[in-house]
């Protein structure tokens, strides 16, 4: 793409870089006219759309090589590696290829099923056997393998049916004898005991994606209104209690992020199980279940029906059982869904190489085209979305990229849709706007990383939260990017009153505080008060969303913004705040609105969300000092400090802090790194304000380090100190505090401290407020820790 950008003539480039939305028709037409006769442009589009030369098409040779390697691993008892190779082979195996009289994909599923069986992963074995049967209903080995898995799982009735079918299909006498023996064993076993698993019916063996059960229906009515500073926004038509679900929505379009392609399902974005499924027609996507696979790529593979090709006639009962096993049943609403990966499939290269937001735009366009069919041949995106965009505020480089990508994407889509739509300057201009809308409105779908870590730990019989104290930390990981049309109406606030989260690909929004009728509902697009200071939040929003934030946190004084990056007063007995020059600039702006017009001072001090009276003290000082906050000057007593010397102390501490972080990567903390870190902490305490966030981070790192060296009481002290600071920067009931308290609880549990249950109760209350009934699903570790705490009591 860089090559294409470099070719754009200087004059046209300058016009594009300086363009506004009104110029787009002209700039897009000029660029289209420039690219269309260029051989290089056509070569690039050709490479992106040629399924033969692309990197994404299936390859029988690679599939067979991988299968062979899988077989070798299997023969020497290395089953996990065998699974890896069979999975690779499945990814590369083209559909409908015959391998020694059998369908290659089915053979690979059966081989992988056997490896799972050997590893004791019976549910995975069962699912893979069924997948083989969906492809090849008459595959004897698959029925046999399924029967064995069902028998081991205690599903004796099903096991006998599976084996009866394989017996009837089997020709060889030795084969029949082997099946007969198996059936005899199952009959004996089923007489001995009825499996507890079968009785409880608790085992999930179906190939449905484990979609989470939605919680209480969302009944809150919201209204779209026009705000004075932020465009449209959503307000509530009724009072909303804290923790209520206020919105639930599936995406218009969604895409997985590149770094998660190998680890998460490309449809629901959950972590991939070991028995993941590839796309039937190309190499890129992996899915957690057939349901996700079908929803994303279409039901090309799974319309199998039992035909009359079987020599044996089965009883009605068995015939029905076979049909149930081989035909994957999905709800009718799912089969009607637009298959968002369908048009990119078949080995095309462009979905792999173009940036995520461009591929997302491709999915949006394809969905729109499908919806317009068969009426519209003349693609017009005018009526597509009523979403805002900030094209004029985009960085100039992004404007050029959006132009180039729009033309390339349109040509790639033309490859799938042929002459169905004509490309013109106008459609390119509309696509540039669409990309700008995606930039302003799309959301990152996130997962809590500890969810995954604990999920796998939990399967370990020896998992102990106590022993794994330092592993329990919550980090958000971006896995996907999606557009939610109604959800796009929520404005941002750095002091949000609602919380957005995702279960699979569904967006849920919950009120995190009581909201009176008529209040505006605002979520955080990323940065929040307590996390970053005003300057850094504004910078983030400018860089990522191209707007200058006008939320309450950025326009009204609050304690966090004043102290988060501040220094302490040179007088050791004074706890006044000393600000750096860049912080002063932003705080002075807020101070003006805080003070209001002349004459309103003092009597009308409006201090939003300030829970600490020091704001008033600061205000009083500022009022007495000509309404100006000065860099390096204590806001309590007015004493000046040399900022330069403070900067070098902080740099020194930062180096030490990074050393400690590096040590965590190797899970070993050398004694000297610990001593250096303690010295730095001391230096920081003398240099920066006691509520500066750096101190909290240093205390937190030391807590982790002392956990690693087994000094748990010291770790606990540091963890508590970190939380104390964070509680002042955020709110004590903020989700960030919930995450920190979870760490504290795991340390408390490590030495059977009975206060762990109180800590966990606080965590549960916070999580409930942010995640409602989804809390346990999103944080399974909470339940584990609670059980551990109960055992300790
Ligand atoms: C997802 S949209 C929200 C709905 C939008 N206000 C509208 O009218 O369609 C995001 C855009 O809303 C505006 N916006 C949202 N929060 C804002 C804030 N705190 N301050 C200023 N503008 C904001 C910005 O233009 C931003 O790009």
TrEMBL record:
Pfam families reported for this sequence: SET (PF00856)
SMART domains: TPR
Protein origin, superkingdom: Eukaryota
Ranges for domain SET: 216-526
SUPFAM superfamilies: SET domain, TPR-like
Database matches in InterPro entries: SET_dom (IPR001214), SET_dom_sf (IPR046341), TPR-like_helical_dom_sf (IPR011990), TPR_rpt (IPR019734)
PANTHER family listed in its UniProt record: TETRATRICOPEPTIDE REPEAT (TPR)-LIKE SUPERFAMILY PROTEIN (PTHR47337)
Stated name of the protein: Uncharacterized protein isoform X1
Species, as recorded: Coffea arabica (Arabian coffee)
């Amino acid at each position: 793409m860089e090559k294409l950008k470099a070719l754009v003539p200087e004059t046209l480039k300058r016009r594009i870089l300086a363009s506004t939305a009104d110029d787009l028709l002209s700039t897009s037409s000029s660029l289209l006219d420039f690219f269309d006769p260029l051989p290089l442009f056509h070569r690039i589009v050709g490479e992106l759309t040629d399924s033969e030369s692309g990197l994404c098409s299936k390859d029988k040779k690679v599939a067979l090589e991988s299968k062979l390697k899988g077989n070798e691993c299997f023969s020497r008892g290395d089953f996990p590696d065998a699974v890896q190779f069979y999975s690779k082979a499945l990814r590369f195996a083209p559909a409908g290829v015959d391998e020694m009289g059998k369908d290659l994909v089915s053979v690979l599923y059966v081989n992988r099923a056997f490896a799972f069986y050997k590893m004791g992963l019976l549910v995975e074995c069962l699912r893979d056997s069924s997948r083989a049967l969906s492809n090849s209903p008459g595959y004897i080995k698959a029925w046999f393998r399924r029967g064995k898995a069902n028998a081991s799982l205690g599903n004796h009735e099903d096991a006998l049916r599976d084996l009866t079918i394989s017996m009837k299909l089997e020709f060889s006498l030795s084969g029949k004898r082997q099946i007969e023996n198996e059936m005899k064993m199952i009959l004996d076993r089923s007489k001995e005991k009825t499996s507890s698993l079968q009785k409880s019916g608790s085992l999930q063996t179906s190939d449905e994606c484990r979609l989470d059960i939605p919680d209480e229906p969302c009944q809150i009515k919201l209204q779209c209104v026009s705000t004075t500073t932020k465009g449209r926004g959503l307000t509530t038509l009724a009072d909303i209690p804290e923790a209520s679900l206020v919105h639930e929505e599936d995406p218009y379009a969604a895409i997985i992020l590149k770094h998660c392609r190998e680890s998460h399902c490309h449809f629901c974005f959950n972590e991939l199980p070991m028995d993941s499924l590839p796309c039937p027609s190309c190499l890129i996507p992996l899915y957690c279940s057939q349901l996700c696979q079908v929803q994303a790529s279409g039901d090309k593979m799974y319309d199998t029906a039992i035909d009359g090709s079987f020599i044996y006639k089965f009883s009605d009962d068995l015939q029905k059982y076979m049909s149930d096993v081989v035909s994957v049943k999905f709800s009718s609403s799912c089969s009607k869904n637009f298959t968002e990966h369908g048009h990119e499939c078949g080995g095309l290269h462009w979905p792999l190489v173009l940036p995520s937001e461009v591929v997302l735009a491709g999915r949006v366009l394809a969905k729109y085209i499908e919806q317009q069919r068969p009426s519209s041949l003349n693609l017009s995106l005018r009526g597509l979305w009523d979403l805002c965009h900030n094209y004029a505020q985009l960085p100039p480089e992004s404007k050029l990229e959006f132009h180039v990508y729009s033309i390339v994407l349109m040509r790639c889509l033309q490859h799938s849709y042929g002459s169905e739509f004509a490309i013109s300057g106008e459609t390119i201009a509309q696509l540039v706007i669409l990309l700008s809308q995606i930039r302003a409105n799309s959301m990152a779908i996130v997962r809590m990383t500890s969810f995954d870590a604990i999920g796998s730990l939990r399967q370990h019989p020896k998992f102990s939260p106590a022993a794994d104290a330092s592993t329990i930390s919550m980090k958000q990981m971006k896995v996907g990017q999606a557009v939610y049309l109604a959800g796009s109406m929520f404005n941002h606030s750095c002091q949000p009153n609602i919380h957005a989260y995702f279960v699979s690909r569904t967006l849920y929004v919950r009120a995190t505080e009581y909201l009176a009728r008529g209040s505006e509902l605002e979520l955080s697009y990323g940065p929040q008060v307590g996390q970053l200071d005003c300057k850094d939040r504004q910078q983030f929003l400018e860089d990522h969303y191209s707007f200058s934030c006008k939320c309450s946190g950025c326009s009204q004084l609050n304690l966090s913004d004043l102290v988060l990056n501040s220094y302490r007063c040179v007088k050791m007995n004074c706890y006044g705040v000393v600000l750096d020059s860049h912080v002063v600039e932003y705080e002075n702006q807020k101070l003006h609105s805080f003070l209001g017009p002349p004459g309103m001072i003092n009597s009308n001090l409006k201090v939003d969300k300030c829970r600490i009276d020091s704001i008033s003290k600061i205000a009083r000082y500022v009022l007495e000092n000509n309404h100006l906050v000065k860099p390096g000057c204590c806001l309590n007593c007015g004493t000046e400090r040399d900022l330069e010397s403070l900067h070098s102390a902080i740099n020194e501490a930062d180096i030490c802090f990074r050393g400690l972080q590096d040590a965590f990567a190797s899970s070993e903390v050398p004694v000297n790194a610990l001593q250096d870190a303690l010295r730095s902490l001391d230096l920081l305490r003398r240099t920066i304000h006691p509520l500066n966030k750096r101190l909290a981070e240093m205390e937190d790192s030391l807590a982790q380090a002392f956990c690693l060296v087994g000094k748990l009481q010291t770790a606990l002290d540091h963890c508590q100190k970190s939380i104390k600071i964070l509680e002042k920067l955020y709110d004590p009931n903020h989700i960030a505090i919930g995450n920190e308290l979870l760490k504290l609880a795991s340390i408390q549990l490590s030495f059977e401290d009975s206060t762990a249950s109180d800590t966990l109760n606080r965590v549960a209350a916070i999580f409930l407020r942010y995640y409602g009934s989804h809390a346990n699903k999103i944080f399974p570790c909470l339940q584990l820790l609670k059980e551990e705490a109960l055992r300790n009591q």
